[in-house]
Amino acid sequence: MSQETLTITDNRTKQSYTLPIEHGTIRAIDLRQIKTGPEDFGLMTYDPAFMNTASCRSRITFIDGDRGILHYRGYPIEVLAEHCSFLEVAFLILFGDLPTETELKNWVSQITHHTMLHETTKKFMEGFRYNAHPMAMLVTTVAALSTVYPDARAIDDPNNRLLQIKRLIGKMPSIAAMSYRHSLGFPYVYPDNDLNYAENFMNMLFRMVEPKYVANPVLARALDILFILHADHEQNCSANVMRSVGSAQADPYLTTAAAAAALSGPLHGGANEEVLKMIDEIGSKENVPAYVKRSKEGHSKLMGFGHRVYKNYDPRAKIIKRTAEQVFEVTGRNPKLEIALELERIALEDDYFIKRKLYPNVDFYSGIIYQAMGFKPEMFTVLFAIPRTAGWLAQWQEMLTDSEQKIARPRQVYAGHDVRPFLPIEKRSPSW
Ligand code: ACO
């Protein structure tokens, strides 16, 4: 018998079972044969919050959380951030290999020609309240694209899927920019196809009365690098939502909207906005020790710290810290950086954070750059959602084409009442 097996003895029945181990995992369904009798359903695993469950096989992103390593399709994130454009990385994530020159040229041209929004979508956005959160506008508008593209329901057709993928990657910056302009009461700006992905996004965000928007190249490149860093992160909360909703064969617009909704939460992509609020609350470098103390006492988490997978410095945070210096040469230093650096210094020397392996994550420094570039904190998670769309769509495609996948449907451990006698309304006592 192969060494790659696990032998389990059920002490209830004294019976032993040998299960295969593949890639360091056993199949949960193999446990089902472990029964106390013919009426027994069979053994299950209980894993709230998926702390130790692999839900898929994936070839997209590799993370070694203990060593602080992140690869897309085998390429270290540091190398991609140095040499590639975001759309090049999106191609890599989606199709598995870096594009040739011709492939990249075609891909960029195709994405660029999908940046326009239907006029009804623009009107739809005009209906949002003046103070609507940009992330809520983005989620809602992405879902509303499902009404514009009913053809997207043909998810079994690879050509159709590819068309929707191009539309979503092309339109995401347009929707994001419109949500930003809407919250400021500014007129919407149409895409400019002469510009690259990041420059065009900046054009739609910032252009006022000038006939042609010219982006600062350092800021445009910084934004592009931030997009690369945020493009995918394997089975995080929103990717899991993407796969789960997609497994019911919902169309890609509704599925992406669901993933973006997950991203908006403060424990996930919404953390970058919370970091800025936290730094504002701290107010000055001198107040950092007291804030860290309060956090250790359980009053508040240090936002932008800690990660389910990284138990080391998040490699993306390192690159962001470096990129911040380049941005500050153009914009001037964001005074909030001093507070953030002090927070990091004190936390990384503190036993509480050392013991729990809590390091700065991707969201800790990104907000400081975004703010220096002129974004309001409410836009930070929207800036995360734009590039992550490529990752979500790659995860979605991989799930749909994986013959082992089915509709995602976990089991539960039922902890409620046994069958109870029905009580007529006059005999019931108040529940609360
Ligand atoms: N500040 C203070 N203490 C923390 C923090 C933090 N940011 N994060 C975790 N801890 C503590 C917990 O209280 C817990 O302590 P205990 O063992 O004494 O109970 C221990 O560290 C383990 O934390 P968990 O919450 O169990 O870790 P989990 O893997 O479930 O959570 C998460 C990871 C959600 C990222 C968490 O660290 C957190 O809330 N961080 C702040 C929010 C944040 O920055 N989120 C962005 C993550 S990156 C992304 O999604 C893009």
Please give the alpha-carbon distance between the first and last residues. 59 Å
Extended strand count? 5
Rg for CA atoms: 24 Å
Largest sheet: 3 strands, antiparallel
What small molecules does this complex bind? acetyl coenzyme *A
Low-confidence stretches: none
Name the strands of the widest sheet in spatial order: 3-4-5
> Approximately how much helix is present in the residues?
40-55%
Mean pLDDT: 95
Counted by DSSP, the helix tally is: 17
Class derived from helix and strand content: mainly alpha
In short:
The protein has 432 residues and is mostly helical. The chain has 17 helices and 5 strands. 49% of the residues lie in helices and 5% in strands.
Description:
With 432 residues, the protein is mainly alpha-helical. It has helices spanning 77-83, 86-95, 101-112, 119-126, 134-148, 158-184, 197-206, 217-229, 237-247, 252-263, 271-282, 288-296, 315-331, 336-348, 351-355, 362-372, 380-400, and strands spanning 5-10, 15-20, 61-64, 69-72, 75-76. A hairpin with a 2-residue loop joins strand 4 (69-72) and strand 5. The longest helix is centred in the middle third of the chain and has 27 residues, at 158-184. It is globular and about 80 Å long. The chain starts with a strand and ends in a 32-residue tail after the last helix. The site of acetyl coenzyme *A (ACO) has 19 residues, from helix 16.
